[in-house]
Amino acid sequence: MGKLYLVPTPIGNLEDMTFRAIRVLKEVDLILAEDTRTSGKLLKHFEISTHMHSHHMHNEHKTIENIIKRIQTGENIALISDAGTPAISDPGFLLTRACVENNIEVDCLPGATAFVPALVNSGFPNDKFIFEGFLPEKKGRQTRYLALAEETRTMILYVSPHKLVKTLAEFVQYFGAERPVSVSREISKLHEETIRGTAEEVLKHFETKPPKGEIVVIVGGKISVKEKKEDK
């Protein structure tokens, strides 16, 4: 019986790649990559010649059965996404679940992921938080906002740059103009920055400076009336 490795890859700076990740990718029999063209550049940089197969959200339902069979016959297989840790808003969950159901060992290596540095950089409470990933595009979006408006824990969301201004405007609408927000973009890259302030302040900033790159948004949880009185 082989094993499935979930291997994080850099979200920007190639120095974030771990020695262990490089070793595992060199030693496994096959690498499953979200985009073989993107991952090919990474593997070439670290002189990794292991064969790759494509594994993404559009084909993962069809390929899982064959992957499971290959691992059961003794092959060790690694899964990587374009950036960060597999299965965090990326393909990986379905394959991991299938391996668990078939008593196949899964080894997830620690490594780069975007939301942890964004959460810590925000300065918001991080003893309790929820990861929302990408909000629904249309159906269910308003319902989700109404639920999150009452959430007391710090919230983490992934937002595409061309939808950030719209999303921040929705924060003002559903959470209130004074709700604290922190937007981190291009984490670990050359133009990394974090903008903090109220929902209204951050909205005004990005209305005048259109955002670019990968974005993680942190939203402070709702503060109860009792907590407000205690703060005073």
Give a structural overview:
This protein has 232 residues and is an alpha/beta fold. The protein folds into two domains: 4-108, 3-Layer(aba) Sandwich (Cobalt-precorrin-4 Transmethylase, domain 1), CATH 3.40.1010; 114-219, Tetrapyrrole methylase, C-terminal domain (Methyltransferase, Cobalt-precorrin-4 Transmethylase, Domain 2). Helix content is 37%, strand content 20%. It contains nine helices and ten strands. The protein has helices at 19-27, 36-45, 60-72, 93-101, 115-122, 141-148, 164-175, 199-208, 225-231, and strands spanning 3-6, 30-33, 52-54, 77-80, 105-108, 129-133, 154-158, 180-185, 193-198, 215-219. A five-stranded parallel beta sheet has the order 3-2-4-1-5, sandwiched between helices. The chain has a five-stranded mixed beta sheet with strand order 6-7-10-8-9, with helices on both faces. The model has no long low-confidence stretch (mean pLDDT 93). Catalyzes the 2'-O-methylation of the ribose of cytidine 1402 (C1402) in 16S rRNA.
Fill in the keyword field for this structure.
single chain; 232 residues; alpha/beta; Cobalt-precorrin-4 Transmethylase, domain 1; Methyltransferase, Cobalt-precorrin-4 Transmethylase, Domain 2; 5-stranded parallel beta sheet; 5-stranded mixed beta sheet; 9 helices; 10 strands; S-adenosyl-L-methionine
Q: At the third CATH level, what is the topology name of the largest domain? A: Methyltransferase, Cobalt-precorrin-4 Transmethylase, Domain 2
Helix proportion: 25-40%
User: Treating each run of at least 4 consecutive H or I residues as one helix, how many helices?
Assistant: 9
| Distance, first to last CA | 61 Å
Radius of gyration: 20 Å
Widest β-sheet, arrangement of strands: 3-2-4-1-5
Give the CATH class of the largest domain: Alpha Beta
